[in-house]
Amino acid sequence: MPHVVSCWSLAGATDLMLLVECDSNDDLDTIRRQIATIPGVATVQTHVTLKTHFDRRS
Questions:
Q1: CA dihedral in degrees (44, 47, 18, 56; nearest 10)?
Q2: Cα(24)–Cα(1) distance, rounded to whole angstroms?
Q3: What does the DSSP assignment read for 6-58?
Q4: Cα gap 40→48, rounded to integer Å
């Protein structure tokens, strides 16, 4: 999935967190649906970033 930029393993109720970059809400919906069909994926939660205050990766 080329829109998935990063993937982190987490401690707690959530197992993985993905960083997805896309151009529109429709693209995000398509990517969410694709991820939801992966065997072993029980749920998909989405959090949308409204603003980046700083990013040390840049």
A1: -170
A2: 16
A3: EEEE-SSS--EEEEE--SSHHHHHHHHHHHHTSTT------------S--TT-
A4: 23
Token pair, residue 49, equals: 């970033």
Kindly state the helix (H) or strand (E) to which residue 4 belongs, with its residue range: strand 4-9
**What does the domain layout of the chain look like in residue ranges?**
1-58
- Tokens at 38, concatenated: 């992966």
Picking from 15, 14, 19, the residue whose alpha carbon sits closest to that of residue 31 is 19
Residue 53 CB: number of other CB atoms within 10 A? 4
User: Two tokens at 34?
Assistant: 């694709």
pLDDT in tens, 6-43: 999 999 999 999 999 999 999 999 999 999 999 999 99
